[in-house]
Design a protein that fits this description.
Structural class of chain A: mainly beta
Number of strands of chain A: 11
Radius of gyration of chain A: 13 Å
Helix content of chain B: under 10%
Shape of chain B: globular
Distance between the termini of chain A: 36 Å
Helix content of chain A: under 10%
Shape of chain A: globular
Order of helices and strands of chain B: EEEEEEEEEEE
Number of helices of chain A: 0
Largest sheet of chain B: 6 strands, mixed
Radius of gyration of chain B: 14 Å
Oligomer: heterodimer
Largest sheet of chain A: 7 strands, mixed
Number of helices of chain B: 0
Structural class of chain B: mainly beta
Distance between the termini of chain B: 38 Å
Chain lengths: 116, 113
């Protein structure tokens, strides 16, 4: 399957700072990537869709000004959590669709964000 | 009613046992059915993918889909301690929303030696 690389795996930051998370598709191009969030003991929820060359689309209830998404190239999408607060502490995971069946999503290893 | 119902477990079985994991769903728009395995604090790993009713086998894993009953299952034969993880069922309506997977809450499985 497709390999998606995500970095960093863990971030601890102070309240009010911004954190950038990178997601790369390895050995394939992804014009679209997806950012999910997972709170403890809950399942994954789609936050936003990252589109190469155009604006990201956000799911209902997700603040676009807080979660800035940039799809800089066909292999890189970044999520920046701006002015992070403790309630933003969560596990953030990016994904990319398969090249043959785009309903299959391949996930990165995730980033655990802890805001103090 | 939740779109997806999955028994959270936890489920504990001895090595070599057959494991059965199940999900029910209510959204008739779901066309694609997947099972993911997630180790603690890692991203989900795709195990099985199917879009039709019936059984699909891959090694020790068998995915079963019954669209008429809106029920899917994952069977693991000859379970191993390395199978200990959280198993997530996932559903996709396809079309323009192909990136939006609806996940079950996950079943925690422990296989003990």
């Amino acid at each position: 399957g497709a390999v998606v690389s995500q970095h960093p795996s863990r971030v601890i930051c102070k309240s009010g700072t911004s954190v950038k998370i990178e997601c790369r598709s390895l050995d394939f191009q992804a014009t679209t990537m997806f950012w999910y969030r997972q709170f403890p003991k809950q399942s994954l929820m789609l936050m936003a869709t990252s589109n190469e060359g155009s604006k990201a689309t956000y799911e209902q209830g997700v603040e676009k000004d807080k979660f800035l998404i940039n799809h800089a190239s066909l292999t890189l999408s970044t999520l920046t959590v701006t002015s992070a607060h403790p309630e933003d502490s969560s596990f953030y995971i990016c994904s990319a669709p398969g090249t043959v069946n785009n309903e299959k999503l391949f996930f990165g290893s995730g980033t655990q964000l802890s805001v103090l | 009613q939740k779109e997806v119902e999955q028994d959270p477990g936890p489920l504990s079985v001895p090595e070599g046992a057959i494991v059965s994991l199940n999900c029910t769903y209510s959204n008739s728009a779901f066309q694609y059915f997947m099972w993911y395995r997630q180790y603690s604090r890692k991203g989900p790993e795709l195990l099985m993918y199917t879009y039709s009713s019936g059984n699909k086998e891959d090694g020790r894993f068998t995915a079963q889909v019954d669209k008429s009953s809106k029920y899917i299952s994952l069977f693991i034969r000859d379970s191993q301690p390395s199978d200990s993880a959280t198993y997530l069922c996932a559903f996709n309506a396809g079309g323009t929303s192909y990136g939006k997977l609806t996940f079950g809450q996950g079943t925690i499985l422990t296989v003990h030696p």
